[in-house]
Design brief:
8-stranded mixed β-sheet; 3-stranded antiparallel β-sheet; alpha/beta; 266 residues
Length: 266
C-alpha cells in the first residue's frame, strides 16, 4: 500500500471517529506500527491530525468539542472492558464508590454486582439506568445501591451544573472512578465542558482516593477545562504503558489483548 493510500485511510477513520489507535490502524492496513507512526507524524506536520500517546486525534477534539455518548460508546470497546475489569478489582464489599459520566466508566455497570454491598454515587444517566435494568432483571443479593444526582444533561449524558455539583459535594465516597476526555502529565485531567469540570471537581474533592480511567487515546490530550492536576489521582487505569512523564503516578495497567489483570508500578 502506498503512503498516500495509508494517509487517506487514516484520515477516513478520523472522519468517523475522534481518535485512532496505532495498533488498530496497523492491523487494518497490514503494515507495521512503526509505519503508522511515521504516517501520523507526516499528517501531523500537515495539520491534519494531532499525535497523542498510542495514536492520533482530530485537531478539533482537543479543546472544546465534546463527543456524544452514543458515538463514543461504539469505539474502543475491548480496551474499555479491560479497563473496567481492572478498575473493579480495586473495590471491596461495602464501599461507597462515586463514578463520573462517560463511556469508559459506563463499562463498569455489568461488573459492579460482583462486589457485594456497594453504594454507587453517579451523575451518569446511562450508568444509573443500566444498573437499574440489570438489578431488576436478575435481582442479585447485595446489588449496588444507586444515588443519582440531578442536573443538566451534557452530550456525554452526564448530569452537571449547580444541582449536580451541590449533590455530589454533600456526599462522601471511599473511592471515585473518573473518566476523562484528556489526561496529560502537565495539564492534568481535562474536559471540554466547563460545567462538567465543575461537577467533576466536586467528585475529586469528596473521595478518599481518585482513580482515573482512560484508554491511550486520551493520554496526552488537553481539553478546555481542567478538573484536577494529575497528582491528585492515586492511580491511572489504562490499557497500555504510559510514557516516562507519567512515572510519578502509581499506574494500574490492563492489557485488553489478554485476560485483564492488574499490575502496580511505583
Amino acid at each position: 500500500m502506498l503512503a498516500a493510500e495509508r494517509h487517506a485511510a487514516i484520515l477516513e477513520r478520523l472522519a468517523h471517529q475522534s481518535a485512532v489507535r496505532v495498533s488498530d490502524v496497523a492491523l487494518a492496513l497490514g503494515v507495521s506500527e512503526m509505519t503508522v507512526r511515521r504516517d501520523i507524524d507526516v499528517l501531523e506536520s500537515r495539520g491534519a491530525l494531532v499525535r497523542v500517546h498510542g495514536g492520533a486525534v482530530r485537531p478539533g477534539s482537543l479543546s472544546s468539542v465534546e463527543p456524544g455518548f452514543d458515538a463514543n460508546r461504539s469505539r474502543g470497546g475491548q480496551a474499555k472492558q479491560g479497563i473496567a475489569a481492572a478498575a473493579v478489582s480495586l473495590l471491596v464489599p461495602g464501599m461507597t464508590v462515586s463514578i463520573t459520566g462517560g463511556t469508559t466508566t459506563y463499562a463498569l455497570a455489568p461488573l459492579l454486582s460482583r462486589v457485594r454491598g456497594l453504594t454507587v454515587i453517579t451523575n451518569s444517566l446511562p450508568l444509573a439506568d443500566e444498573l437499574h435494568r440489570l438489578n431488576a432483571a436478575s435481582a442479585p443479593d447485595g446489588a449496588p445501591r444507586v444515588l443519582l444526582s440531578g442536573g443538566e444533561l451534557t452530550p456525554s449524558k452526564a448530569l452537571v451544573g449547580p444541582l449536580a455539583t451541590s449533590t455530589i459535594a454533600s456526599l462522601r465516597a471511599d473511592l471515585c472512578f473518573m473518566g476523562a476526555h484528556g489526561v496529560d502529565a502537565a495539564a492534568g485531567i481535562t474536559t471540554p465542558n466547563l460545567a462538567e469540570a465543575d461537577t467533576n471537581q466536586a467528585f475529586a474533592r469528596t473521595c478518599g482516593k481518585l482513580v482515573v480511567l482512560a484508554d491511550t487515546t486520551k493520554i496526552g490530550v488537553v481539553s478546555l477545562a481542567r478538573v484536577a492536576p494529575l497528582d491528585a489521582a492515586s492511580a491511572l487505569v489504562t490499557d497500555q504503558q504510559p510514557g516516562a512523564e507519567y512515572a510519578a503516578l502509581t499506574r494500574i495497567l490492563c492489557d485488553p489483548a489478554s485476560d485483564p489483570h492488574l499490575e502496580e508500578r511505583p
